[in-house]
UniProtKB/TrEMBL annotation:
Name of this protein: SCO family protein
Disulfide bond sites: 80-84
A GO molecular-function descriptor: metal ion binding
Alphabetized CDD domains for the sequence: SCO
Keyword terms, alphabetized: Copper, Disulfide bond, Metal-binding
Length: 207
């Protein structure tokens, strides 16, 4: 953890380009359920894919097994200097707020760095934010496929350093309902209270 702590206070310039999220996602007036604060070309139903990945406890799990309840899905990596920890903490806080209102929502962290993010590393990382956070990793091909399903761009800057490299990636969080149905996304500047309110609205609309 020592090297990671050093990086946490370092520059995040290499991933700052992606901090604003996807270019094709825009925060504006919603439609449909009346809960949405965002729109996307092609509709939110264009996001998502079935998968089988490895959970932080080493178990292989399918997308149906993971998304058995409303979930806040985020793509990041454990060596991330500051963006991923902040976003993961925000997502965990939103889930905790919803839990206080009697709504069970889980957080899911899919790595974009499967080379370093083994199940054991993910277990240590997710435990920093929530006992209920699910961490998922897999082969390079599996991780590429699931990122493609949610249109998540990522690129490892490892040409010169195979150990302490950073990874460019997008930073949106997606609300995935049971059945792998993606209904909403949140940019990284969305406060946990606003996120919780929007998620609660979607849950109420599908109840």
């Amino acid at each position: 953890m020592g090297d990671r702590k050093i990086l946490l206070i370092g520059s995040a310039a290499a991933i700052g380009l992606m901090a604003g999220g996807a270019l094709f996602l825009t925060q504006q007036g919603g439609a449909g359920t009346g809960c949405s604060a965002s729109t996307v070309a092609g509709g939110m139903d264009a996001f998502g894919t079935e998968f089988t990945l490895t959970r932080q406890d080493g178990q292989r799990v399918t997308s149906a097994e993971v998304f058995d309840r409303p979930s806040l899905l985020y793509f990041g990596y454990t060596f991330c200097p500051d963006v991923c920890p902040l976003d993961s903490a925000r997502n965990a806080e939103a889930a905790a707020l919803l839990d206080e209102d009697g709504m069970e929502v889980q957080t899911v962290f899919v790595t974009v760095d499967p080379r370093r993010d083994t199940p054991e590393v993910l277990a240590d990382y997710t435990s920093l934010f929530s006992d209920d956070m699910i961490g998922l990793t897999g082969s390079d091909e599996e991780i590429a496929a699931v990122n493609k399903g949610w249109r998540n761009y990522f690129k490892a800057n490892d040409a010169e350093d195979q150990e302490y490299y950073l990874v460019d990636h997008m930073t949106n969080t997606y609300l995935v309902m049971p059945g792998t149905e993606t209904v909403e996304f949140f940019s990284r500047d969305t406060p946990p209270e606003v996120m919780a309110e929007t998620v609660a609205c979607h849950i109420g609309a599908t109840s």
